[in-house]
What we know:
- 45% of the residues lie in helices and 0% in strands.
- It contains three helices and no strands.
- It has helices spanning 21-37, 41-53, 66-77.
- 0% of the residues are buried.
Amino acid sequence: MFAFRNRPPQLQDVPGVAASPSEVERAERIGNMSQELGMAPAVLAGKVVDAISSQQFYILTHDHFDPTIRARMEDILERRTPTPYRSEIDVDAR
Length: 94
């Protein structure tokens, strides 16, 4: 979420130009959301251990994303343009 801080100059959008105020604000908003709404590390660790134990390949931590994942997979199989997705991250930005 703060990758721009560690991005080497040759991989920056414009070499030598720092992250824009909007990029910094978005990164801070993502960080705040993950703090407020994110899963506790111990809970996530338990899900990962359970998935590994049951040889589950995909570890989907939040069921409310299932419709979005399903739409994406159906778009791929139907060879159509992806259904637009409105990120929860950008909802509060307006």
